[in-house]
Fold this protein.
Amino acid sequence: MQKIIDKLYKEHTLSQNEYLETVNSFSRENAEYAAELARRATLPVYGNKIFIRGLIEVSNICKNDCLYCGIRKSNKNAQRYRLTKEEILECCKEGYTLGYRTFVMQGGEDGYFTDERVCDIVKSIKALYPDVAITLSLGERSYESYKALREAGADRYLLRHETADSCHYQRLHPKELTLENRKKCLADLKSLGFQAGCGFMVGSPYQNAENIAKDLKFIEEFSPEMCGIGPFIPHSDTPFKDEKAGSAELTCYLLSIIRIMKPNILLPATTALGSVEENGRLKGILSGANVVMPNLSPYSVREKYSLYNNKLHTGAESAQALEELKEQVESIGYKIVTERGDYKQNI
Ligand code: SAH
């Protein structure tokens, strides 16, 4: 088994069957082996640097009804909010002072955030802070819309593919949403010059090892600049409320596999990983992750952006919490840096 991991380390490609074998051979021992190679793979590209991204949750209003998500349209218990431009700029101001040089604006698919409004916000942030990168994560939009956002100055876009198997995709989403369109959006984003991020949940309902092998092959072929993976965590106001959460250990193993496959990829240790396991984010870093995305949203809305239950709320949003995160990261031999942390093309 370790031979396949060695092969991936050397050649950066495997067949889907080999990925399946890799997934099926998940064990503590193999995970440790993969983590070791993953750390080794990152070093020549990004050294021991960990990039921080300030996450601003701009709206929990969403027209979609994804079965897993706590802010789905039919959740009548969600207290809906959206941030104003002024509130978003205030988050950036605080974040910039703390040393953040990437802001991520994430939200539900809220019709209020038209191209005109998002472009205006992006341009305003760039005018105030020309040295920051802006990442958007606002769901599926048209090519023309993505083009306008890119021309306004947005640098990166996160849109998880959620699962690369169309039958599985259909079991997680309402029928209006298709894997085909998701993939088209990702291809559009890439063609427009965004640093693009796909990704999936580990342990989502109905997921099997074949699905994960497909996800890995999709990531290999699409070759995104970023990839977000985290455990599925049930939310009590969704149809999946009684499903069980995904495993932190399997998430870490898959982070290692993705890192070995793509040494240059920007790979976050996600909030979901930090939420299911004590020190989950540190374990993610030791498995090959090199990005963390602390929460910069105003305190008043944090509880409301509830994608899943028991979401980690300590966020390095205050100077003190950021100091603590820095210390934790340093204690395992890594270093939080205040750089934009762009994708490195060739090393
Ligand atoms: N509307 C945007 C942002 C979605 S939220 C979009 O469509 O891209 C960001 C990610 O959170 C989703 O892509 C999904 O993978 C993840 N997520 C949603 N619900 C979750 C849950 N219950 N457990 C874990 N992750 C979840």
